Amino acid sequence: MNSKMSGGPGSIQIKIILLVFATIIALATFIYTQALISQIEVREKQVAELFASSLQQVAKLDASDKDFTFLLDVIKRIDFPLILTDSKNNVSLDGMTGGIRNLGIDSLLTEDQKIQFIQTKIEEFSKFNNPIFVYSQDSLVLNKIYYGNSVLITQLRYYPYLQIIFAMMFIIIAYFSFSYLKKNEQSNIWVGLAKETAHQLGTPISSLMGWNEILKINKSNPDKVEDISAEISNDLQRLNKIADRFSKIGSKPKLVPTEITEVIQSVIDYFNRRLPISSKKTKIRIINSANVSLPLNRSLFEWVIENLIKNALDAIESKNGLITFEIKEEENNIIIDVSDNGKGIDLKNRKDVFRPGYSTKNRGWGLGLSLVKRIIEDYHKGKIFVKSTILGEGTVFQIILKKDKKQ
Question: Which of 138, 167, 349, 378 has the fewest CB atoms within 10 Å, counting from its CB?
Fold first, then answer.
């Protein structure tokens, strides 16, 4: 198989792109969060300054004119830790309303312990924000306002790191899950390819063994030996085709103008001569054909037709099976409809039929239709899909191939 299947340079490039993309997202989140933090810090500083300005206005009023309504309105806007001290950093727990805000002081602490706790917070706040002074009319410092960051800022500071940690965890889990699924799919492909090889070789080898036994019985009959010799030659040619097919996987096959109807008919003839004689009789035929040449790799395209026929044979459960090929010519394309009267495909599995490893048969390995899709789409630049399917009635696969532009 080629490098795409084994995880070559393309896979490494994808991983690098994903890593770069994740890094860009992480950096963008970090920068955006820091911008939000800066905006909130400015807002909180403005509120603290407004509180200081309000205290100064109150200090200028006469005792009879003091109105604390606007001051209380400002205090309501303080949603961050704030401590109001006198000019010497002394704190009174019985001071003005709003002097201590959002500190979360434990009510079980003694008064001395509370004062010590507040002093510790003052030192802590001083490291991040300069205190705001409240001046008297004589420009003397009446109070100092110390404030810290709100809970929102603290959460935002840690948010990018938490996001990066969770994102990395997600990427790691996703990477290992993807690697496991990829390895599992590759394992299915390799196992399926091995079984497909055995299956491909099985038909002509079984035929050759049968012809050999018939030769032993009819060795004295020259006419019979001549007929058998022709069939042996056909099976040997088939073995050579099988070897040629597998040698083309992973390499760019050569496409040459080939008459499409003749290729399909040759595969039908091969199957008709070797269909088992049993109570279940199946007819394979072309019901409509267009005599046109297409750029094909004959060996690989025959493999497509064989796999579609095998898939149809496995799906047919009635005694009178029918597999038909209808070849239609359009302006730029050739349309091939492959129909059977089998059991059909459940709609929920319609998209999975071409996936490596998918199979509804207990003895299947799920590679036939996957190979068909690869040969048609990757090597012949065409399309193949389930055109229609009805449970209990049958399925129609449609192949679309581009006509040779030289025609």
Answer: 138
